[in-house]
Amino acid sequence: MADTSTTNPDDPNYQPQSRRERRELEERRAAAEKAAQRADAQAEKDASSEDTGVALHAEVEAKQAAVDRAQAQADARAAGDAPSSSDEGGILAGMPSAVDSPLEEEEKKVEQHETEVAADDETAHISIDSTEAVNEQTQTEAKEHERSLKAESQGSSEDSEHDSDEESEDKKPAKRGLFGRATKEEKNRLSFAQAREENRVNEWAWSQVKDYGSIILYALIIAFVIKTFLIRGFYIPSGSMENTLQVNDRVFINVAGSYFSEPKRGDVVVFKDSQGWIPTQQKGSNPIQSGLSFVGILPDTSSNYLVKRVIGVGGDHIVADGKGKITVNGVEITEPYLHPGSNPSDIAFEVTVPEGKYFMMGDHRDRSGDSRFHLADNHAYIDKSDIQGVVFVIAYPLNHFGLLEDQSKVFENVPNAR
User: Fold this and answer.
1) pLDDT one-digit tens code per residue, 76-97
2) Catalytic residue positions?
3) Which of 151, 184, 234, 284 is the most interior residue, by most CB within 10 Å?
4) How far is the C-alpha of 362 from the C-alpha of 268, rounded, in Å?
5) Residue ranges per domain, the chain?
């Protein structure tokens, strides 16, 4: 749902977040209502003034019509009472006031009426002009009041937002720790600019250290759990497993699978060098890399682990004639994973693998110091407890990425040990 909240007091969707904002909003609304009432009153006054002017004009026109009718009647009477030309001299000489006096009086009345109409018309125009001036003044005052209200609202917006933030923080429940207990109350998070203004940079820096430190700690814990119980990465430093695994490959082993099943013939496994196959002078690694490898952030690059292929399990009888043939429990095996040009074994041997032990050989037999080379010192067999897991994927580099092929089919015709 879209957020319709706003911090503009003039917006119809604005919702006050504090008592101060509500009070200011009520004051603004009251002032706006008063301005609206004044504007309505002025509009009514203007309307009445316009009606008065219209009435005055109508009255003037009515009076003018009456004057015209009176003048027409006087002209008609004068025309009806006029004597003939032969008697004109005697009548005009004998009765001058009888004709002139009514006309003069009527003309005076008309002039006086026109003077009154002109005065009323001027008064109406003055009233209309004064009404318009008052209306303009009222509108100007309303605009100035509105501007002052906006300036006050903008000046107090930061304080009102701060008050609303404090109220919202007060309404938030305390954080809950283990078993539902409150560990601490919500605190206002400082920005760097605010901390610098309030001289609280040390407090801000400590809060950042705690936050990011917690993230790093959780990441390390998760990586350690994954490395210990799920999958773990290793680095391939030599070519003893070429071409299955190349130098500098990063591989992952299935740690979880080692808890529920045992390695079988054909599996590629990583095991700890508890038998001393690696010379002492070659062991050792960077302490930082060792620490990161320990928690599972980096693949293990130490020289304390080896990677080989399982050729025999407990009880198996393995024979190599030294001419390129190997048999397991009397069945000769054909190994497609061997490095091109390598024989299965140029060293002749015959062994029976002890129970709970494994006989290991590398895919690049010419360069692999595997179980064959430690038969004489009785360190040829790898204990199950030393096996870390079965390699199932090459993760890096990306052009080598892929799952390892299951080679158990090479030994599918080999019977179990008697």
Assistant:
1) 766 654 444 334 333 333 434 4
2) 240, 308
3) 234
4) 9
5) 19-80+101-161, 188-219, 230-411
